[in-house]
Specification:
Length: 193
């Protein structure tokens, strides 16, 4: 239905970006189409259909059989905002940044969707444990969660320093600790601007 509506009206604004990241090349074209509320009466206040077309190439398959595959995707969004195409592109990209940074990591790396803890408070408790693990991994400054897990394995002294502020004089750190552990730089958070 969205595609038919888009084809029946002219675009009011468009914006395009390209990036090469993680071995993928992606071009995103954001196009704004005005739509009258009479065409979509179920959506109160709707003013625009936003079409995001993603094209590019990405790696697919296991490491031994990886190949570069072209992709073409179109997603449609409805909005009551009077924004430019670049503003919509930024907002939609920001949403997916959060989705990929948090939810995808929990679902894929920590296998949260297949959690076997189902009764009582167990699901909420395990969700907090997983979120704590992600926060700790980000404090370590590693690039990936598996890298952080390898860094934390058998490095309880370093983890306790991060968590409780114990100095390296209190608990010696093994010489084989991950690179950020060797610096022993204190973590300081400033809320002043």
């Amino acid at each position: 239905m969205a595609q038919k509506l888009v084809e029946s009206v002219g675009a009011s604004d468009s914006y395009q970006t390209s990036e090469r990241l993680h071995g993928r090349t992606t071009t995103r074209s954001t196009t704004i189409y005005p739509v009258s509320a009479q065409l979509l009466p179920a959506w109160a206040g709707v003013k625009h259909i936003i079409a995001i077309k993603r094209t590019g190439s990405r790696w697919e398959g296991k490491k031994s059989r990886r190949r570069l595959v072209d992709f073409h995707e179109t997603h449609y969004y409805l909005s009551s905002k009077d924004w430019s195409a670049s503003q919509f592109a930024s907002a939609i990209r920001g949403h997916w940044f959060l989705e990929n940074r948090l939810h995808w990591v929990k679902d894929v790396t920590l296998n949260e969707d297949n959690c076997i803890h189902r009764g009582g408070n167990a699901p909420a408790n395990w969700a907090m444990v997983r979120q704590f693990l992600l926060s700790l991994a980000r404090m370590l400054g590693t690039n990936t969660l598996p890298e952080a897990l390898r860094c934390m394995a058998n490095q309880l002294e370093y983890v306790s320093e991060l968590l409780f502020g114990l100095s390296h004089q209190d608990k010696p750190i093994k010489s084989g600790a991950c690179s950020s552990a060797n610096s022993l730089a204190p973590l300081v958070y400033s809320f002043d601007n």
